Amino acid sequence: MRDRLFIDGKWQAPAKGGTFPVINPATEEVVHQAPAGTREDIDAAVKAARLAFDKGPWTRLSGKERGAVLRRISEIILARKLDLARLEVIDNGKPMPEAVWDVEDTAGCFAFYAGLAEEMDDNPEETITLAEPRFSSKVVREPIGVAGAIIPWNYPLLMASWKVAPALAAGCTMVLKPSELTPLTALELGAIVEEAGLPAGVLNIVTGLGAEAGQPLSEHPGVDKLAFTGSVPTGAKIMAAAARDIKNVSLELGGKSPFVVFADSDIEKAVEWIMFGIFWNQGQVCSATSRVLVEDSLYPALMERLVAESAKIRIGNGLEDRTLLGPLVSKGQYDKVLAAIERGKTEGAVVAGGGKRPAGLDKGYFLEPTILTDMPEDSFVWTEEIFGPVVCVRPFKDEVDAIRMANDSRFGLAAAVMSKDKARCERVAKAFRAGIVWINCSQPTFTEAPWGGYKQSGIGRELGRWGLSNYLETKQITSFNSEEPWGWYIKPA
Ligand code: NAD
């Protein structure tokens, strides 16, 4: 575990020498003191990134050369898969197999953007056809400059890769500020890029608190682009800070995503996808399908199976074999989720399953997989993101009723539909006001496909070629090719 910041290719102590504790959420033990970066460190990191962008080799390399470094990063991550996954479990609490999955996805993300970097050499410019024959015009894409990335704690290394990999592929330089709840693997990424031969200053990693390190990064005049994943209130602050200097911003925020299950669905498949949609990663997933809508005639039977199977989910330390549900990430998050369940009860929700600390687990931020029913449509638990293993289920009457309820949200990140009727699935998929739609499943995420939300779930898209575009400027180059004078200025006689 590292106790230095990674700035300008060097491991440096924070300017003010501060630290913050890293707590293992399964044991509540302090496992490390991480370096607490502040405004001074952000300033040094942005200066290093600026210099690397303006004068360094990275931006001037070919796409193939950048791609080669990204591939090395991917290979080193894979070679260190188990130790990175272990750090992720200690830091975040997630079960080891899920952490291994995250690390593999992270390596896959760097490999994917290596491919896109290489492709940039094949299509360096696009010719534009003009209606005016005396002119020719072409378009080139260029790196946007210094990017600032601020990320959350639910997928610590993976969320870093969604921003770092496309930014590096584009030829940008970056300052990364991980969440103070999960700084461990992001710091390892510093060692990984160092080993892969990334030039100094191209990626700088400053751990620290939101107000002390995140805010100065979002306000820094030397940053050209801000990429943020996190909560809506912080996203609003980032956007306000960016507005001052007209910084380019992309935001991936929260959600309260619906999962509409029609009566013709296979009940066992529905139960598995509903559980995966809300209990994977302890429900701390921005796209979690936390509102489940079940057609009236299936509702009683499905509820019975869902409650029965959810009660069998094995809860424990993520490092233990066969654990399916680990602890929530922190005491703060744990208290927030418990308070939401209590609030739900006062609003009329019925706890159909779970809702409390599991028996025998006295330490750690553990919570049973929780199923709430009968909550009013305008209740807190039905409308607000809980970000824990808590699913709210309501019956619906028909397709129109289901779509109305599904779209009745200020969020629009994801939505899912299950039915054997393909035409109905397509219809409902089209009717959802959400950026990510799953048919007959919930949550599988692919690096190749765009990721992001409608409404208050964010602005812009990550992943795929859309993710690369976040870090590219568009420049038109137009030539006047005629030997004739332009003719605006007529010389006086
Ligand atoms: P958060 O907004 O509290 O923190 C996110 C990051 O912002 C952290 O690194 C934090 O230190 C930093 N930060 C906090 N205050 C700041 C400020 N004033 N200025 C600059 N930076 C600041 O969110 P969180 O609790 O870490 O994450 C949970 C939220 O993230 C949930 O709402 C979830 O839905 C969302 N999320 C969204 C996606 C997505 O892809 N849309 C993915 C993961 C998480």
From TrEMBL:
<dbReference type="InterPro" id="IPR015590">
    <property type="entry name" value="Aldehyde_DH_dom"/>
</dbReference>
<feature type="domain" description="Aldehyde dehydrogenase">
    <location>
        <begin position="11"/>
        <end position="477"/>
    </location>
</feature>
<keyword id="KW-0630">Potassium</keyword>
<keyword id="KW-0520">NAD</keyword>
<dbReference type="InterPro" id="IPR016160">
    <property type="entry name" value="Ald_DH_CS_CYS"/>
</dbReference>
<dbReference type="InterPro" id="IPR029510">
    <property type="entry name" value="Ald_DH_CS_GLU"/>
</dbReference>
<feature type="active site">
    <location>
        <position position="252"/>
    </location>
</feature>
<dbReference type="InterPro" id="IPR016163">
    <property type="entry name" value="Ald_DH_C"/>
</dbReference>
<dbReference type="Pfam" id="PF00171">
    <property type="entry name" value="Aldedh"/>
</dbReference>
<comment type="similarity">
    <text>Belongs to the aldehyde dehydrogenase family.</text>
</comment>
<dbReference type="InterPro" id="IPR016162">
    <property type="entry name" value="Ald_DH_N"/>
</dbReference>
<dbReference type="GO" id="GO:0046872">
    <property type="term" value="F:metal ion binding"/>
</dbReference>
<dbReference type="InterPro" id="IPR016161">
    <property type="entry name" value="Ald_DH/histidinol_DH"/>
</dbReference>
<keyword id="KW-0521">NADP</keyword>
<protein>
    <submittedName>
        <fullName>Aldehyde dehydrogenase family protein</fullName>
    </submittedName>
</protein>
<keyword id="KW-0479">Metal-binding</keyword>
<dbReference type="GO" id="GO:0016620">
    <property type="term" value="F:oxidoreductase activity, acting on the aldehyde or oxo group of donors, NAD or NADP as acceptor"/>
</dbReference>
<keyword id="KW-0560">Oxidoreductase</keyword>
<comment type="pathway">
    <text>Amine and polyamine biosynthesis; betaine biosynthesis via choline pathway; betaine from betaine aldehyde: step 1/1.</text>
</comment>
<keyword id="KW-0558">Oxidation</keyword>
